[in-house]
What does this fold into?
Amino acid sequence: MMLCFVKLSLNRICRLAGQRAISRVLVAALALLIVSGVLTQAASAADKSPRPNVLVIMADDLGYGDLSCYGTTSLETPNIDRLAKQGLRFTSGYCSASTCTPTRYSLLTGTYAFRRPGTGIAPPNASALIKPGTETIASLLKRGGYRTAVIGKWHLGLGGEGGPDWNGDLKPGPLEIGFDHCHLLPTTNDRVPQVYVRDHRVLNLDPKDPLWVGNKIPSPDHPTGITHRDTLKMDWSHGHNQTIHNGIGRIGFYTGGHAARWRDEDLADEWVNRSVEWLEQNKDEPFFLFFASHDLHVPRMPHERFQGKTKLGFRGDSIVQLDWCVGELVKTLDRLKLSDNTLIVFCSDNGPVLDDGYKDGAMEKNGDHKPAGPYRGGKYSVLEGGTRTPFITYWPGQIKAGESDEVVCTIDLAASAAALAGVKMPADACLDSFDLSGALLGRDGAKGRDHLVQQDNGQGGNFGLRVGNWKLQRHDSKRARNVKVTEELANTDVARYRLYDLSSDPGETQDVKEKHPEVAERLIAQLTGLIEAGRSRPAK
Ligand code: NG6
Ligand code: CA
It folds into this structure.
């Protein structure tokens, strides 16, 4: 409080003196000081816990209200509910961005994606977004003697400046930033190509049938979602009308690689089978597994055995499939007698969306289901619904069952896992990741974040800042995406900043900036400081 007051006063004095540049530097420096204060208060669990295996299960596009343990009655998720019941269910758990690529970038690197241009939603031929030499949660744990793997959706680019060499070595990629092993869907499944990347190679690729991927139609007679729309098994609603594979139009074009292609329906089984295999092979060493599910991203095409299991259509059925995957992983840990020594973190990469480009019935069958729970906004938005998502930690014998209101974020997993593994974090790595291991394990008195920056896809530069129950929105982009408040903003010239009191207004409907100008000013200065400082984790 004191520091905030000093910061505000200095800011005012500097402004009065017309020295905006000095004011900015001071604000940035003080923001860092404030952050350091918080860090020393936050209890680390590292000294009190044995080194655990770490299993991060990340869902795709799963909203705060999409699980029965987060309140929905539209479907049942018994396996995830069990983690929530026997572990710690967070009510203020976040991912750092409201789209996939920036959240995954931040989860791995511990640095906000908005600090690195070009980290928005990656196209099919994107080159590796995380450069070799960048410290990641995987490289930190590997240094601590862990075996490391990522299995599932990647969507962080592969290959050097020229993009992926689909018929050769796909380097750099996960193996160059700390993972011993990867088994990947290279981007998202609505983007080409539908092949697995195993370590450096496309799996099952026949050299006589080379794989070509591009963004221009390869020949005039190449069937697309437009020319062959009547053959599709799932129609598109926007985009997703280029190359057709498995009766589904995709973003981008590809030819060849037929032996390597797979069915969307089999993805979840593949992630589970490969994970079980890897866990069996690595059970005797400490391990870190990043299980990156594709559920419930579009195209939602769950396995036939899950189709029709919910009244919500394929969107709900994909949630049930995700729940099955979680159950299989937990069962495997139990069977291998690893459960007592494994910390599971269950989270999502961004908030929910109904129509994300395919006519899969998600809108029509939604009924009164609230995918973002009590929050507004969802995928692509800086409203709470965009990043406040299910977040559960589970570690039998170490985490007491309960619920936590502490603010935690996927970006903190790097510093927290490193602390639990006893690995020292270099000063210039993971610039925005805090060791919240105490809060993640529910240790008495351990605090979460005292502030949280939220971002959208990063291209337009919209931000959220949560401090206690205050929420500041900063709208730099006029782009309107499925959120009413930004549409309104896009069509008017209202202020860039809005302020909400989440304790009385979780839906962010009443702007109280005029009522609390001093709070607005404090949060605007804090957000500006955090952005301009280039980092929020103190160097020491
Ligand atoms: C959008 C796609 C959407 C989805 C999203 C990325 C269109 C019209 N929309 O551009 O379908 O793929 O990118 O989602 O193409 S994410 O969860 O991977 O960030
Ligand atoms: Ca996503």
Observations:
- The first helix runs from residue 2 to 16.
- Residues 60-61, 100, 297, 349-350 surround calcium ion (ligand 2) (CB under 6 Å).
